[in-house]
Write a structure and sequence with these properties.
mainly beta; Tumour Suppressor Smad4; 6-stranded antiparallel sheet
Length: 142
């Protein structure tokens, strides 16, 4: 699996290894709201335990939230705060900065991704997350 940002940033995820993602660790930003170790990511094993799935578990380690949007058009955006955990799948997107938002896609490494909705169709191009209070959490208006 691979994480690819709108800014061209790429980070490969290896099976059984926790990857740290944050300012200077896979993310090239000077935004101080992004911690150096903002979120940990780990490729999940498949149900049988013999292969690796297309799902990645994560835990927010930084002080500020991580926003996640499913690749399915009918899903709402969720915010995960410090110590909260979740899962993302191929085609899902996440953002770690409210001040300088850059969206990252989770993709299969072989270049094949699940069908995901483009920014125009999903409405991501019209979302301004800079006004969202990270302390109050998931109070999104659609």
């Amino acid at each position: 699996m691979e994480i690819e940002g709108e800014d061209g940033t790429k980070l490969s995820l290896k099976p059984g290894v926790k990857a740290m993602f944050g300012r200077g660790s896979g993310l090239n930003t000077e935004d101080l709201t992004v911690s150096r170790r903002h979120v940990s990511l780990e490729l999940k094993p498949a149900a049988a335990g013999t292969e690796w799935s297309d799902r990645v578990s994560f835990e927010v380690l930084g002080r500020n939230p991580v926003w996640v949007r499913s690749g399915k058009s009918d899903e709402k955006m969720l915010a995960f705060r410090k110590s909260e955990t979740g899962e993302i799948a191929a085609g899902d997107r996440f953002c770690v900065s409210g001040q300088v938002p850059v969206w990252f896609n989770l993709k299969r490494r072989d270049g094949v991704t699940e069908e995901s909705v483009s920014d125009c169709e999903s409405g991501l191009d019209n979302i301004d997350i800079s006004d969202i209070d990270p302390v109050k959490g998931n109070q999104f208006y659609t």
